[in-house]
Amino acid sequence: MDLDKLMNKHLTRAFDPSKAIPEETLQKLLRFLRSTPTSTNIQPNHFYVLATAEGKERLVAHLGERFQDNSEKILNASHTIILTTRADLPDSHLEEVFAKETADGRFPDPAKRALWQSMTRDFLNLRNYGYKDVNHWMEKQTYMALGMTMMAAAELGVEAMPLEGFDPTSVDKGFKIREAGHTTTVLLALGYPDPARVYSDPISRFEADRLFTFV
Ligand SMILES: Cc1cc2nc3c(=O)[nH]c(=O)nc-3n(C[C@H](O)[C@H](O)[C@H](O)COP(=O)(O)O)c2cc1C
């Protein structure tokens, strides 16, 4: 990955519709996305991978009127991922996480496993009843998966464009996401840039002294 190049480039606003991500590359990216960590290993996500014209058109039809400027990006991208997050956190989900961890051999020592599970429950009680931010907390996990997947895409030579311009209620409806107990958090369009429409003007960010405090 060329970090110097990455630091100075714009996100991709225009994809080349003639270029598709090779299946092997896509599968590697999805394996990476599956591997991204979450706080307490809560894994609150489900990802809709739109690989067909039908899928992308359905998303565009449900973006919402004021977000139509994102339509072209999605239609010309090779793939778009809808990153969804659980709408609630029932105990049954936690039990599934614990069962999978046990099946995967994460805590072979039963005492350590019990301690981990009790610490997790404690932490979730704090989010639920103390901070009262369990949905926001789960969505923060989704954004970390988004960021890490953007970096993995760069490593694979794929351009990744995050999109917050959509109506979540409408997208949820279009893919029956609420019925699955989730809600749409953010979109990620993936593909290759249209070489005729790459921005050449400099990126604009605050200076380092505005951003960093060394103590
Ligand atoms: C999480 C996230 C969501 C974004 N959503 C959109 C979007 O819906 N539509 C769009 O055109 N740009 C979107 N952007 C692009 C930002 O507006 C852009 O990164 C910012 O203005 C800086 O521009 P640059 O990346 O070209 O330097 C998004 C960027 C991020 C990080």
UniProtKB/TrEMBL annotation:
<dbReference type="InterPro" id="IPR000415">
    <property type="entry name" value="Nitroreductase-like"/>
</dbReference>
<protein>
    <submittedName>
        <fullName>Nitroreductase family protein</fullName>
    </submittedName>
</protein>
<feature type="domain" description="Nitroreductase">
    <location>
        <begin position="12"/>
        <end position="192"/>
    </location>
</feature>
<comment type="similarity">
    <text>Belongs to the nitroreductase family.</text>
</comment>
<dbReference type="InterPro" id="IPR029479">
    <property type="entry name" value="Nitroreductase"/>
</dbReference>
<keyword id="KW-0560">Oxidoreductase</keyword>
<dbReference type="Pfam" id="PF00881">
    <property type="entry name" value="Nitroreductase"/>
</dbReference>
